[in-house]
Give the backbone structure.
Amino acid sequence: MVIIVLRKIILTLILGGMSLLAAGTAIGEVIRTMEWASFRGSVTTYNGNPVPVGSIVDAYDPGGAHCGTFTVKSEGLYGFMPVYADDPYTSEIDEGAELGNQLTFYLNGRLALTEGPDSPTWNGMGATSEVNLSASATVSIDSVAFPADQEAEPGDTVTYAVTVQNTGNGMDFYEVTATSFHGWIIQTSDDFVYAEPGQNATVYFKVLVPGALFYDVIDDVNFRVASGIDNSANVTGAVSTLVGFTTDIDDDENGLLPGQFELYQNYPNPFNPITTIAFDLTVKCEVKLEVFNILGIKVENHDLGTLMPGHHSVQFDGASLASGIYFYKIKAGDRSAMKKMALLK
């Protein structure tokens, strides 16, 4: 008998005939074999909350072989997850579990506690077990690289990249959301980007510049990259797309500067607790942002410094204020303008 091993596909040649004994295909670190048992959990938690969609469940046999993996598709539960058996025809390789083996489970790279109703035991080909899991981790994120402003032409698609670092102690995954000041279409991926502790992850979003633009315009985009495990762990930033500009916006040689002083409506509005306030300047001047409550009492005062002519935006944080109607005022040299905004907590 001659045994030929090729990519974990084992063929046995007997008397000129060929019989397939076992076949394995790598799925990451997991190797599929011809036998598996199924596991699921209907009450699975992470940090005390239902396990979020996108989380990763992994199973290991007593020898440390990675024999099952599953991406959570419904909040709070996983499965059915195939957990593969060891291949008896490859004694030199441990592909997976054997009958009666106690399995070890991980959630997002963190050791999981197993709870009933069934035990975490591999019970043979075709067996189905319900094993609920729970795990916890520190969830933290930090910014590494934010995108720079880009020039574009009408009809262009502009891609921006944001790189963050997983500063927690468990595997995490990220998604980006973004809003355009002018309401332009923004595309983001439906896929999560994963990172182990200490690793970086880069997410992308695309700004679709309208084709029917007959004037020079700057569009400010506010973006937010958040953990898929804990949405409160996030970083935020802003970037500008300069459409029709071929020189620096501080250069008025070709009449690229705004033609008049203007204050725009804040976005989003209502907001909680951060909003963006944009304005145009025609001259270099000292600029201040003042915020008043409904009674006309000044509740915030920010010196924005000396700004050059052009389009500007500033983020206002109303975390210290109560819900209600407020008025924001930009004072630019001897010019000023005021608009109303709503803080809704």
The mean pLDDT is 85. The two ends are 75 Å apart (CA to CA).
